[in-house]
Amino acid sequence: MDWEQVKNELERLLDMRFAYGHIPLKEWKRLSDPTGGEFVTIDSTTHFYLQPEHDETLQTLAINEALLTRTEKRLIAMALTAHRSSREKWQFFRRRDDGKFAELREWINDHLEAGNIAAELPECYRSVSAFYASKVPLLLVVGESEQKHAKSESLPALLESYFAAEVTIIPLKDMEWLILGPPEIIDASDETDANPGEELLRLEESLQELAQGLYEMMISEWGEDCHVAVSYPFVPAKKLLSVIAELRESISLGKSFHLGANVHLPWKLVLDRLLNAVPEREKERYIERVWKNLDHVLDSEMLKTLEQFFELNCNVSETAKTLYIHRNTLLYRLDRLKQEIGMDVRIFSDAVLVKLALMLIKAAKHTV
Length: 368
Known about the structure:
Elements: H1 3-14, E1 19-24, H2 25-31, E2 39-42, E3 45-54, E4 57-64, H3 70-88, H4 99-113, E5 136-142, H5 148-163, E6 168-173, E7 176-181, H6 196-222, E8 226-230, H7 236-257, E9 263-264, H8 270-276, H9 280-290, H10 300-311, H11 316-323, H12 327-341, H13 348-363
Parallel strand pairs: 8-9
Antiparallel strand pairs: 1-4, 2-3, 3-4, 5-7, 5-8, 6-7
């Protein structure tokens, strides 16, 4: 749980310093008074119950006994209990052995496999208020690991530490999780003078930064290859299945059309989605028609040049600078490509055709 935020808020409101403590479970049971709230006093220190730490130990919030009145202690204990209760109703999304979680996961996967992405949530979940609040959705998929079960158990704490907020974690498959966070986890504050286009751009940049940060944190903490997809804030009760389907598709498209990429953004995969729907035979015919004498010119150097050229919107000067080559060297490469395949990527129409062919070659996993 995000006890650090609770601790900081208490310190701000009371102008006092709290510390984390640890008490043996047997000691807590011996000293606690069921009528006095969830706190005990040991050696002039008052301990407020937070959560189990180990099988025989409890984690507490500790403070000098003399700094608080009896009433203040009971109010703090009530506040901590209320916070803990509001979070515990979500625990079934995290525990693999929980019946409600198993039912929800099965319901989600069954409907997605059947292509029924418009289905409404089952009646038993409509009373969960968090499903009716706006959430930022992320899909995290981690590669196979020999220690995957042990690592997956530590994921909730790791994610809460990264987001610094309450997040809902719904395991969908082995090493695949849907993460639902509050809008506050992205930095996309409104500006009164911003037009809709600027607001959308700022939102997309914030979502990309959030997903990129999550990927880097997972690599750092777990050392496992993973993929992250993120989409716009939404209300889970209305679009849970369609958003999961979109995020899964984004990761699949990203793996096919953007080899080496690990963060996948649906709004940047519009063309990829369109090409993916083209029949395989038509893709092959297009590649054969566009790439004449391909093997003679498209080596790794030329491929890198073209990818950078398209990434920088066909800007010759910027591409040469990024590749650390002279502008004339870049022009020579582009002229050589024109001679071999009859297309000049400095011309928009030719650039589009070549770009499409490159995407299809990657998706088809051609060796070039």
